[in-house]
Amino acid sequence: MDSFIADDGEIIRFRDDGEGLPLILLHGWTSTHRDWNPFIDTLAGRYRVLRWDARAHGGHPLRTGTVATVERMARDLDNLMSQLGLREVTLIGHSMGALTLWQYLRDFGSARAAAAVIIDQSPKLVTDDGWDKGIYGDFDWQRNAVFMRALERDFAEAVLRLVADGLDPRARRRYLDNGDGIATVRQRIRRLAPKPLIDCWASLTAADYRDVLPAIDVPVLLVHGGRSNFYTVDTAAYVRDAIRDARLEVYEDVDHSPHLWRADRFIDDLLAFLASRLPATSAETG
């Protein structure tokens, strides 16, 4: 993997494939750059594709004492683009990656950005009396506190339960069946250092990007799972309506990772969006 040194001295690892206008792919919490592997052959034939292991992710131990907050990850993203001299970037964020994207736009603006893709995310994860479009529709501060205590007791099992206890009963059945897929994910998560990721979760659940959405001045593609474990279609519609230039694609009957469940459709939707929204040079490279 390639790497760069962030402005606090942390080493951030990433992969860099293809040529052309740049796409930066931002993965979700506890995940890695490998989540994007199914798309690289197609995308790297048309664009320059960069995908990182976010700070505290990918099994890379931290070398600094800096907490992996969403603000710090957004700064890492700015460091990456600045050090590589990237402009006209399309930012593609799934789950935590979408929050990082929104934080980046809040802190650094869109001067380097050409477009954005948001995959199955709410601008505010924790719910309250005036906000029911976060996790499950009823994941309030008390419920989040219970979850964080569960993370401290058994990190891997708590992460699996977060998915299993969501809006899609099929995820619950998969968890209870405890088949090879669940066992593989459990083993992968158990190899991670819990404390940095718990600190990261605390930052993610403290964030609120509802004020960022109306200020976004680049075109946005929204991709939402019609049976998302975490967010209803009403949440996706809220995000679409709050952004001045946003198109929503709902992938019916799939969960929080619609791009992985419907990879062929996601590629088609993404390439069509990029061809229609980016400068003419992108179409020429495609």
Outline the low-pLDDT stretches: 281-286
Task: List the domain count as a whole number.
Answer: 1
Main sheet characteristics? 8 strands, mixed
Quaternary status = single chain
- The arrangement of helices and strands along the chain is EEEHEHEHEHHHHHEHEHHH
Q: Average pLDDT value?
A: 96
N/C terminus separation: 26 Å
Structural class: alpha/beta
CA radius of gyration is 18 Å
General shape: globular
Q: How much helix is in the residues?
A: 40-55%
Strand tally: 8
Q: Strand sequence of the main sheet, in spatial order? A: 1-2-4-3-5-6-7-8
Main features:
286 residues; alpha/beta; Rossmann fold; eight-stranded mixed sheet; 12 helices
Describe it.
With 286 residues, the protein is α/β, with parallel strands linked by helices. It has one domain: Rossmann fold. The chain is 44% helix and 16% strand. The protein has 12 helices and 8 strands. Strands 1-2-4-3-5-6-7-8 form an 8-stranded mixed β-sheet, sandwiched between helices. Helix 9 (233-242) links the parallel strand 7 (220-225) and strand 8. The longest helix has 15 residues, at 70-84. It is globular. Residues 281-286 have low confidence and may be disordered.
Describe the secondary-structure layout.
Blueprint: E1 2-5, E2 11-17, E3 22-26, H1 37-43, E4 48-52, H2 70-84, E5 89-94, H3 96-108, E6 113-119, H4 141-153, H5 155-164, H6 169-177, H7 180-190, H8 194-206, E7 220-225, H9 233-242, E8 246-251, H10 258-261, H11 263-277, H12 280-285
Parallel strand pairs: 3-4, 3-5, 5-6, 6-7, 7-8
Antiparallel strand pairs: 1-2, 2-4
Helix pairs in contact: 2-3, 4-5, 4-8, 5-6, 5-7
